[in-house]
Design goal:
mainly alpha, two-stranded parallel ribbon, 8 helices, about 80% helix, globular
Length: about 230
C-alpha cells in the first residue's frame, strides 16, 4: 500500500515537474546567475530520470508522515488517553522538526556547502583556467543526499526524546545503558555524516547534548514533583 502511495504521489508531483525543478535550482543562494543559466545533461534519458528522481524524492517525505499517521490511527483504539496524547505530541514534534530541517537545509546548510566546494574553483582559476559546467543530474543527486541526511538527523532527535524520556524514569537503567547509547550515537554519527572528523564530532556532540539535556529535564521534573508531594 505504501509503495502504491509513493508511486501515485511521484506521478502527481511529476505533473508540476518544471515548477519543482526551478524551485530546487533557485532555492540555493550560493549559486550565481551564470551557473543557474547553464546546466548540462549528457544522455538522452537524463532529463526524464531527473523528473522521476525529483518526484520520488519529495514523495518519500510525504509517505513518511502518512506512515506515521496511519500507524497512530491503527494503534489508537488500544491506547490509554495519556499514551494517545504522548504519541500525538511525538507526531507533532516530528512534523515541526521536518519543517525546521527543510528551513535549515535551504537557508544555512546548502549555501555553506555550496560556497565551500565552489571556493576551490576560485582558487584554481587564479593559476589554471577551470570552468564549472553544472551537470543537472549530479547536482540533484548531491542535493537529495544532503537533504535526506539532514532530514534523518533532525528526525533522530525524536528518537532521542523518546529514549531519554523512558530511560530517565529509571536512574539505574540510565547508568547501565548510558555507555551503550554513547557508542550507538557515535556509530550513527559516523554513518550519516561526510567522511571527515569535524562533521562527525559536531553531530556527535549535538546528539549527546540533546540526549543529556532531555535526561536532566526529566529527572529535574521528577525531583520537583517529589518535593511537592513531600512538602504537602
Amino acid at each position: 500500500m505504501l509503495l502504491i502511495t509513493t508511486i501515485s504521489l511521484a506521478f502527481v508531483l511529476s505533473y508540476y515537474k518544471i515548477f519543482l525543478l526551478i524551485l530546487v535550482l533557485i532555492s540555493n543562494p550560493a549559486l550565481t546567475n551564470e551557473i543557474l543559466n547553464y546546466f548540462i545533461f549528457t544522455t538522452i534519458t537524463e532529463l526524464f530520470l531527473i523528473y522521476i528522481l525529483l518526484g520520488f524524492f519529495i514523495a518519500k517525505h510525504f509517505v513518511y508522515f502518512i506512515l506515521l499517521y496511519h500507524t497512530i490511527c491503527f494503534l489508537a483504539p488500544g491506547m490509554y488517553r495519556t499514551e494517545y496524547a504522548h504519541i500525538k505530541f511525538i507526531f507533532l514534534i516530528s512534523l515541526v522538526l521536518a519543517i525546521l530541517s527543510s528551513s535549515f537545509f535551504n537557508k544555512i546548510l546548502m549555501p555553506i556547502v555550496s560556497r565551500f566546494f565552489l571556493s576551490f574553483q576560485n582558487q584554481t582559476a587564479q593559476s589554471m583556467p577551470f570552468y564549472f559546467e553544472a551537470k543537472i543530474y549530479d547536482y540533484l543527486i548531491f542535493i537529495t543526499e544532503i537533504s535526506i541526511s539532514c532530514f534523518f538527523i533532525f528526525q533522530l532527535c525524536v528518537v532521542l526524546l523518546i529514549l531519554s524520556y523512558y530511560i530517565s524514569n529509571n536512574v539505574k537503567l540510565l547508568k547501565i545503558t548510558r555507555k551503550i547509547f554513547y557508542l550507538l550515537f557515535l556509530v550513527v554519527s559516523t554513518a550519516v555524516t561526510p567522511p571527515d572528523i569535524f562533521s562527525q564530532l559536531c553531530l556527535y556532540c549535538l546528539v549527546l547534548l540533546v540526549f543529556e539535556t532531555q535526561n536532566f529535564l526529566n529527572i529535574f521534573k521528577k525531583y520537583l514533583i517529589w518535593q511537592k508531594i513531600t512538602t504537602n
